[in-house]
Structures are given as structure tokens and as C-alpha cells.
Write a structure and sequence with these properties.
The structure is a single chain. The protein has a domain at about 35-245 and about 355-458. The protein is globular and about 75 Å long. It has 15 helices and 17 strands. The chain has about 450 residues and is α+β, with helices and mostly antiparallel strands.
């Protein structure tokens, strides 16, 4: 075997009864045969058209091979299939499934854009276009679920959460963050939950410098999301759940001034709050001493920090943590709220449910939303939005899997089971046929999802 043929042919002469030859000669083959599901999911949102419609193309029309819409779609679908780096485009340029996703003939159609073209594309986007694209993302998500729910929802919950995005080069606005103990960006993710559904749908992804506070920009994001929710659902209750870093006077004042908005916002302990929690802590210490286990007691108080203009209700979770071989440890927790239910219900059934957001953010990191290695800050924000758009499509796939054993599957599981399928694409005058494996272990679920996304038996 010569070096020139090493990538087209491989031989295993001894591991089977006969020599096994691997031939890389399927020009109409693809390893992403299930990606047609991503295309079907995107049709539910119109996400690519709405977000790419925010871009302005300064290029000469006669010299353009790839429209901005196609460049945007190429990156979103590639990320959804697990190719987060633009360098992967060199190996995917002629992939028939990826050309199909761009509405090109999978066999004779123009190959996809190269890595240099994609890099120029990412670095050409400015802040105004990015703002409009962020707004289009939120509008598309909320509109999609308003239609799904027939514009009827009794409760929409908004969760915001920052996450660290470590940086390792000379990226603009990358700063050292003492909380995370590294140089990073600090993007904020926004999610909405409808009624009592288990899924939190991504609707905002804002890249921020690494040295900002957790609450920076939160009021603007909340104001935008609340307006969209109220415009899509009549007489809806809006509930906001936030972690301790958001308990700023400005944000609390904004929430108090919004009619019909409930909120639960964690708050860090201080000497005054610890004194208010002491009676409940004494009870928790007594119970922990009797049971030799971790115990907690709930209570409440009225409290006004020095920078607040009014008192607010504070939920107290007085907890004593016991671990084998260690001394008992006091662990009081505090949550600010304007809701009237019991402290235990508010803490356990409302505030603690925001912990599921960590799983959504873990999925985003697995999809490499932290691939922010461009030197320009705005190019990195664009990459964050591209990954967010791809993740929205993956969430639509999970919604299509409702009623199956993949209804709560993580994004990487959905990709491995339903997108990563060997396929051969054939084109005739009348149709395009994608040949998928007959011995496919998840065929029943794939069929269920395809039908839910608009396919018909045929």
C-alpha cells in the first residue's frame, strides 16, 4: 500500500477469517444521515432565516458563491452534528447530507464554504447585527412554543445563569475572574419553562467580559423576554428564578416594578441575616444532634439591606450538614421572594428546581459553546449565538422524542443515536433518497421523531 492510497484504503489481513479491506470510496456517502431531522426541526422555527436575516452583506453580488444565509446554516448544522470548528469544513465540503441541508443537490451541487470563508464571515459581524440576532433567537423560541401551546400558558418561568468560559489566548475582553480563578469570559444564558414542563428552553446567550458581575445586563434581558412572553400569552404569570449573584438593588427594584411578576432570588448570607436565622438554626442543630444526620428547618423574616428602599420577604433554610468523620457545619441559605406560599414549598418546589439549569448549561458546553478562540470579542459572541441556535434545534429533537425512552436524553445522546448514521444519498429526476442502515437499533424512536417533525409514512 502506497502513501498516496493510505487514506482511501485500509487492510486488516489477520483479524477475520478472510482479509478485510476498508475502502473509502463512497462519494455519495455520509456519516450524518440522520441530520435531516435537524432540517425538519429548523422548519418549526424558521430560525436560520430569522437570524441570518439580521445580517447585511457588503460583498459584490457577482462574486458571491455562498450567501450569508447559507454560511449561517452551514455553521449551525455543522455544530449540531458535532463539528464545532470551522476547520472541519474542509472535510465536509462535499458531504452530500450537508449539501442537502443547504438546499443544494447532494451530488452535483456546489461544495460548501471553506474554512477561510467561514472565518471571514464570523469576523465580519458587528454589535448591532449581533443584538438583532439575539432578539431573533428569543423571538423565534417563544413564538414556536406559543404556537405549540396555542398561545395558552398559565405560567412561564425565566431562569438566567452565568457560566465561565475559560480563555487561553489574547481574546478581547478576556479578564481574570477571582470567583472562577482563571481568565475567562462570563456568558449569560437565559431559559424559559412553560407551565410544569420538564424542559428549559434556551432563548438567550449573551457573551460578557470576564470581569463583570453576575447581574450585568440581566435587566435588559429580562425586559426583552417579558415583553415577548406577554405578547405571545395573554393573562400569563411570569416567574423569575435567579441565583445569589443577581441580588442587586437595581434588579430587585425592576422586578418589584413589573406587574404580575413573581420572583425567587437567592441572596448571600450576612451578619443581619444570620441573626434572623439563629432561632431556626438552633432547632436544626438540635435535630441534627438527635438524628446524627443532616437536618434543615424553614423560616422567614422581613429584611431590608442598606441599599434597598423597602423591606422584602426572606425565606430562610436553616441547615446543619453532618458528614461522617467531620464536625457538624451550619449552612444557612436565604432566598428573596414576593410570593406568598410557605417557605418550604417556595424553596423546594420553586427555587431548587432551577438546579436543572446546570444540566442545560452542561449540554451547551458539550456542544462547545465555549469555543471562543477568535481574537475579536464580537466574533466570539457570534460563535456563541451559532451554538445557541444549534442547541435550540437539538431541544426540538428532544421534544419530538416525547413519549419514547429518549424523551429526556442529553443532547450528545440524541446526536449519537439519531444524527450519526451512515447513509448513501441517491438522486433521481423525481426525488432524493437517503439510504440508512436496516439494522438500526433506534429505528422505532427515529421513526417516531421523524413523524413528529412532519414526515409522513411512505
Amino acid at each position: 500500500m502506497t502513501d498516496s492510497t493510505a487514506t482511501e484504503r485500509l487492510l486488516f489481513p489477520e483479524i477475520f477469517a478472510k482479509p478485510a479491506m476498508l475502502e473509502f470510496d463512497q462519494r455519495q456517502g455520509s456519516s450524518d444521515g440522520g441530520a435531516v431531522l435537524l432540517k425538519a426541526a429548523e422548519r418549526r422555527y424558521g430560525l436560520i432565516a430569522s437570524m441570518s436575516g439580521c445580517l447585511r452583506d457588503p460583498r459584490q453580488v457577482t462574486k458571491v458563491d455562498h450567501s450569508l444565509r447559507d454560511l449561517f446554516a452551514q455553521r449551525v448544522f455543522s455544530i449540531g452534528c458535532g463539528y464545532a470548528d470551522a476547520n472541519d469544513s474542509a472535510r465536509l465540503a462535499a458531504d452530500p447530507m450537508h449539501k442537502m441541508l443547504l438546499d443544494r443537490d447532494p451530488v452535483t451541487g456546489l461544495d460548501m464554504a471553506s474554512q477561510p470563508t467561514l472565518s471571514r464571515f464570523e469576523n465580519a459581524i458587528g454589535p448591532r447585527q449581533l443584538y438583532s440576532m439575539g432578539a431573533a433567537l428569543a423571538e423565534s423560541v417563544i413564538d414556536r412554543h406559543a404556537q405549540r401551546l396555542h398561545h395558552r400558558a398559565r405560567l412561564v418561568t425565566i431562569d438566567l445563569d452565568p457560566t465561565d468560559d475559560p480563555t487561553h489566548g489574547a481574546q478581547q475582553l478576556s479578564f481574570f475572574n477571582s470567583h472562577y480563578d482563571n481568565a475567562c469570559y462570563l456568558p449569560m444564558m437565559g431559559f424559559v419553562t412553560f407551565n410544569d414542563e420538564a424542559e428549559q428552553y434556551l432563548c438567550a446567550a449573551v457573551l460578557r467580559p470576564g470581569n463583570v458581575t453576575a447581574a450585568a445586563g440581566a435587566v435588559g434581558i429580562l425586559r426583552r423576554l417579558m415583553a415577548l412572553i406577554r405578547g405571545s400569552f395573554s393573562r400569563v404569570r411570569i416567574r423569575v428564578r435567579l441565583d445569589g449573584g443577581f441580588a442587586s438593588p437595581q434588579l430587585l427594584a425592576f422586578l418589584d416594578g413589573e406587574p404580575g411578576v413573581e420572583y425567587v432570588v437567592a441572596m448571600a448570607s450576612n451578619a443581619v441575616l444570620n441573626r434572623k436565622a439563629e432561632e431556626a438554626m438552633q432547632v436544626a442543630r438540635l435535630l441534627a444532634g438527635l438524628t446524627d444526620q443532616t437536618e434543615h428547618v424553614y423560616g422567614e423574616a422581613r429584611y431590608a439591606a442598606g441599599s434597598w428602599k423597602q423591606e422584602r420577604r426572606i425565606i430562610i433554610k436553616a441547615e446543619v450538614v453532618r458528614a461522617e468523620g467531620k464536625e457538624p457545619k451550619d449552612n444557612p441559605r436565604f432566598v428573596i421572594t414576593n410570593m406568598n406560599q410557605t417557605p418550604q414549598w417556595l424553596y423546594e418546589e420553586v427555587y431548587c428546581q432551577r438546579g436543572e439549569i446546570e444540566n442545560r448549561i452542561k449540554e451547551l458546553h458539550a456542544m462547545e459553546i465555549d469555543r471562543t478562540s477568535c481574537s475579536r470579542f464580537w466574533a466570539n459572541q457570534f460563535r456563541v449565538l451559532l451554538t445557541a441556535a444549534a442547541y435550540v434545534l437539538m431541544q426540538e429533537l428532544r421534544l419530538a422524542a416525547a413519549g419514547t425512552n429518549c424523551a429526556r436524553a442529553q443532547a450528545w445522546t440524541l446526536r449519537e443515536r439519531f444524527l450519526k448514521l451512515g447513509a448513501r444519498v441517491m438522486v433521481s429526476v423525481r426525488r432524493m433518497v437517503v439510504h440508512l442502515p436496516q439494522s438500526f437499533p433506534f429505528l422505532a424512536t427515529f421513526r417516531h421523531m421523524a413523524l413528529a417533525l412532519g414526515a409522513s409514512p411512505g
